[in-house]
Design brief:
This protein has 202 residues and is an all-alpha fold. It has nine helices and two strands, in the order H-H-H-H-H-H-E-E-H-H-H. The longest helix is centred in the C-terminal third of the chain and has 29 residues, at 131-159.
């Protein structure tokens, strides 16, 4: 891809906007998480815990996804700064697969669009894009994708009792970038093998 002076990272603009907003974590995950898919993961908990009632298996998968997503977002920011559309498309494909495995459908859909924009395509209208147009669209997508991820992250943390619920459903998910870096014990990584798959699909 043609190289020019790197644009400002989208996070520099996005973080200022996100700081002004309180995330509202809904009680109903419809439109955020496909519970049919997610419950298939949770059904494995009893098999993993002979005593019953545990959720360590599914929780470890969720923790692995959090770790993966945070790392991928950082890589997306770096690729955006370098105007590396090929890398952005591959990263979109990778996070799309990991999100689909857990049923995190809103992030999945956004990442699919990023995958296409990385190839300078708008598949919704079947049109080619210029590099500048594709990068501008990805810049907006990154803001939306991070917010959708934070909402899903807040809902899942609340499900597993990892976040305080103040009763109004607001404020959860803020400052999650730092909190997720401190998470430990992720035993299972969702989407392993998607990296190789991304290379094949490029």
């Amino acid at each position: 891809m043609a190289s020019s002076a790197p644009k400002a990272l989208p996070s520099e603009k996005a973080k200022a906007e996100q700081a002004k907003q309180k995330l509202e974590i809904p009680t109903d995950p419809e439109g955020i998480i496909d519970m049919e898919t997610f419950n298939q993961i949770r059904e494995m908990d009893d098999e993993d815990d002979e005593d019953g009632g545990g959720n360590e298996f599914s929780k470890s998968i969720v923790e692995g996804y959090f770790e993966q997503a945070e790392t991928t977002f950082k890589s997306m920011e770096d690729a955006f700064a370098a105007r590396d559309l090929t890398k952005l498309g591959a990263l979109g494909h990778f996070l799309k697969g990991s999100s689909a495995a857990l049923g995190i459908v809103k992030v999945q859909a956004t990442c699919e669009r990023m995958q296409h924009y990385g190839h300078c395509r708008d598949e919704e209208v079947g049109a080619d894009l210029s590099e500048d147009d594709a990068l501008a669209r990805i810049e907006r997508l990154l803001v939306d994708c991070k917010r959708d991820y934070r909402v899903a992250h807040g809902w899942l943390r609340r499900l597993y009792g990892d976040a305080a619920d103040d009763g109004d459903g607001e404020g959860e998910g803020e400052g999650d970038d730092a909190a997720l870096d401190e998470k430990e014990g992720a035993k299972v990584k969702v989407g392993e093998g998607e990296d190789a798959k991304a290379k094949e699909d490029k």
